[in-house]
Amino acid sequence: MKAAIVASLVGSAAAFAPTSSGRAGTSLAVEKSKALPFLPAPANCEGYVGNVGFDPLGVSNYFPVDYLREAELKHGRMCQLAWLGYVAVDLGMRVPGYPEAMSSASSAAAHGPAVEYGALGNILVWIAFAEMTSWIGVSQMLQGSGRAPGDFGFGKKFLDGKTDAQIESMKLKEITHCRAAMLAFSGVVTQSVLYDKGFPYF
């Protein structure tokens, strides 16, 4: 008799107990970012080479990731060249034919003389031309042409005969160097201005 009462109490209590479904369990298991484990992984960045889930502001939710990757590659490539040019000037490399004010200026102090001589205006024109022509490819990419971000057709011969894994590895190396160059150029400019010394700027 006592066993029957206990069984009925346990059965009635179990009727009001919360049940768990597989769907509720998976909704709570959100994949976390590798770079920032306290944030969810940005879903739109999945499948891109070099993705470590770093998007704390959620920019990939508002802009096409192809466009963002294009910008990242462009700025990274420019910073690789810029770091090399900045340091080369401070090590004494000069283009022949420029006036003394420009030839003797350090990289940090070259802006003023370059504006006076007109060199900076020429650079602006060429950069504007490059931006306008490159936008044709970017625009076609955003309209679904299948063009890969940053692909301007240069260096394709280096991919001949490579496996998909090797191509992915080369893309990963490029994006890694691009990101390092953006930090490196920011650092070299900041340090050269703060310490007002030539290379290595300390």
UniProtKB/TrEMBL annotation:
InterPro entries documented for this protein = Chloro_AB-bd_pln, Chloroa_b-bind
Pfam families, per the entry: Chloroa_b-bind
Keyword check for Chloroplast: yes
Highest taxon, organism lineage: Eukaryota
Q: Which UniProt keywords apply?
A: Chlorophyll, Chloroplast, Chromophore, Light-harvesting polypeptide, Photosynthesis, Plastid, Signal
GO BP: any one term: photosynthesis
Keyword Signal in the entry? The reply is yes
Task: Please list the residues that bind chlorophyll b.
Answer: R77
Q: Which residues bind chlorophyll a?
A: S60, E72, H75, K173, E174, R179, Q191
Compartments where found: Plastid, Chloroplast
Where does the secretion signal sit in this chain?
1-15
GO CC terms, sorted: chloroplast; light-harvesting complex
Matching PANTHER family, A to Z? CHLOROPHYLL A/B BINDING PROTEIN
Query: What does the UniProt record say this protein does?
Result: The light-harvesting complex (LHC) functions as a light receptor, it captures and delivers excitation energy to photosystems with which it is closely associated. Energy is transferred from the carotenoid and chlorophyll C (or B) to chlorophyll A and the photosynthetic reaction centers where it is used to synthesize ATP and reducing power.
* Similarity comment: Belongs to the fucoxanthin chlorophyll protein family.
Question: What protein name does the entry list?
Answer: Uncharacterized protein
Give the source species: Stephanodiscus triporus
